[in-house]
Write a structure and sequence with these properties.
Number of domains: 2
Bound molecules: flavin-adenine dinucleotide
Helix content: 25-40%
Order of helices and strands: EHEHEEEEEHHH
Oligomer: single chain
CATH architecture of the largest domain: 3-Layer(bba) Sandwich
CATH superfamily of the largest domain: FAD/NAD(P)-binding domain
Distance between the termini: 61 Å
Mean pLDDT: 92
Strand order of the largest sheet: 3-2-1-7
């Protein structure tokens, strides 16, 4: 992106971090924001950094509606949400930072997920419509609807989406897994029957 004019769609921290990183190399970086402020979705330290970067600008109330190019992207079409006016601008690249989704579709149906695919854990398992919980105890923290299977980090429903919290949950799961092994031992398959 060195010396190029690049665009980023999004108004969250990911978009802000990408803008500041790209600004070190690109000629200009333009953040395309559907709303009319960054403050609601981006941390204030990032908003300040974005606003004070000489080659970063923000276009509010703007949507990308089209893109063209021969082999690679060369132009994008932007629509002004306020008046519907469209404008075509040169663009060497478009980075789409509008959120993520969990790759949990490979998990079995017995492991409850919300409509977005985030894994339900802890007491929420009991409250989640349609979820089966077959133990005679409550789900442990971070335990999924499949007893003995735990989830930590971003993949969990309502997780904090921060490195520190993901790492903390990972560490917590070790303790909780031990708790599961200790308390559920009598309920597991009879060892004698398995010859163990
Ligand atoms: C652009 C961006 C900027 C961010 N900035 C910050 C920040 O400044 N500070 C902060 O605290 N947080 C930040 N975050 C959030 C932070 O990165 C996450 O909260 C954190 O990484 C979550 O850790 P995790 O282990 O739950 O998930 P991830 O880090 O996503 O790790 C999950 C891992 O599982 C792997 N995986 C997925 N499916 C499978 C499978 N089927 N089999 C095997 N492996 C699989 C993935 O490849 C990945 O390596 C940022 C996120 C983004 C996207």
């Amino acid at each position: 992106m060195k010396g190029q004019d690049v665009f980023i769609v999004g108004a969250g921290n990911s978009a802000g971090q990408a803008a500041l990183h790209l600004a070190k190399h690109a000629r200009t970086v333009t953040l395309l924001v559907r709303g009319d402020s960054l403050g609601r979705s981006m941390s204030s330290y990032l908003v300040r950094a974005v606003e004070s970067a000489a080659n970063v600008r923000v276009r509010y109330r703007t949507e990308v509606v089209d893109g063209h190019g021969d082999r690679s992207l060369q132009r994008i079409k932007l629509a002004d949400r306020a008046n519907g006016n469209e404008e075509e601008v040169s663009a060497a690249a478009l980075f789409v930072m509008i959120g993520g989704h969990p790759h949990t579709q490979w998990l079995p149906d017995d492991l409850a997920r919300d409509p977005q695919g985030y894994v339900i854990t802890g007491p929420d398992v009991l409250e989640y419509a349609g979820t089966r919980w077959e133990r005679n105890r409550e789900p442990l923290p971070l335990e999924t609807s499949m007893s003995g299977v735990f989830a930590a980090g971003d993949v969990r429903q309502d997780s904090i989406k921060r490195v520190a919290s993901a790492v903390g949950e990972g560490a917590t799961v070790v303790r909780v897994a031990h708790e599961h092994l200790r308390t559920d031992e009598p309920e597991r398959a009879p060892r004698s029957a398995m010859g163990v």
